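Lab manual, section 2.4: Encoding a predicted structure.

Procedure: take the sequence of the chain (281 residues), apply the prediction step described in section 2.3, and record the output as structure tokens. A sample record is shown.
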Amino acid sequence: MNNTELKELRVTAAKCRQKILRMCKAHKAGHLGGANSCIDIVTALYFHTMKVDPNNPELEDRDRFVLSAGHKCLAQYTALCQKGFFPEDLLDTYGCLNCRMPGHPDMKKLPGIEANTGALGHGLSIACGMALALRAKGLDSRVFTILGDGELAEGTNWEGAAIAHHYKLDNLTAIVDNNGLQIGGDVTRIMDFSPIRAHFEGFGWVVREIDGHDMAQIVQILDALPFEKGRPSLIIAKTIKGKGFSKAENVGKYHFWLPTPEEMELAEQENAAELEALENE
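Recorded output:
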């Protein structure tokens, strides 16, 4: 990938962060921290890696994306919107009663959503089922799922990890958004699953580690998939909770954000400055 294409992806990610703020502003709340920590990866998936078509969301041989950490749906909603799956004004309905954009993804309400998620720990097993089904149909499509490091304490993750290795699901890639924080504080204090790499390698996965905000690294690692034929791939992405808003970065209380007008103004100013700098590079 050349520098112009990388710049375009970075600009797209910044525009997605802008839309995340728009939704938080409309609803006066939102899971900013995790959405901002994973949006660079989500952007690379939707705008570089995955085969998806906003004009045909049910395309049979499309790639599938499962956001296991469903509370980070702001990231997926913005990427789908930016990709053209639905009009921008729908963003302003986020979180409203009976809206199409609830606080966790709902596959019955919005095109491009592949699974209802938010009960943490289930996304990996759902993704395994999808990968098995695609293989049974003889399709070359791939399945991607993003897990939060805080949800690794859920036992269903490890059932999925075992299934993926047993059935040699090399069409499956899991990505851990390793930002180190969850709603109750530091992940390693609440339930320490480090070293994450060793745990997944023990289940037979091939593991790589990257900086989850370095778009060049993200693209390079996604282009290398699958890491090994006949084995599932795991990417551990080291990220910053609340990335893109200085007050929120690595601060646990911004896991779920109730913005004051002053905070929102500052966040919007910082995002606008970042976007302008990227566009002028």
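Check your result against the sample. The mean pLDDT is 97.
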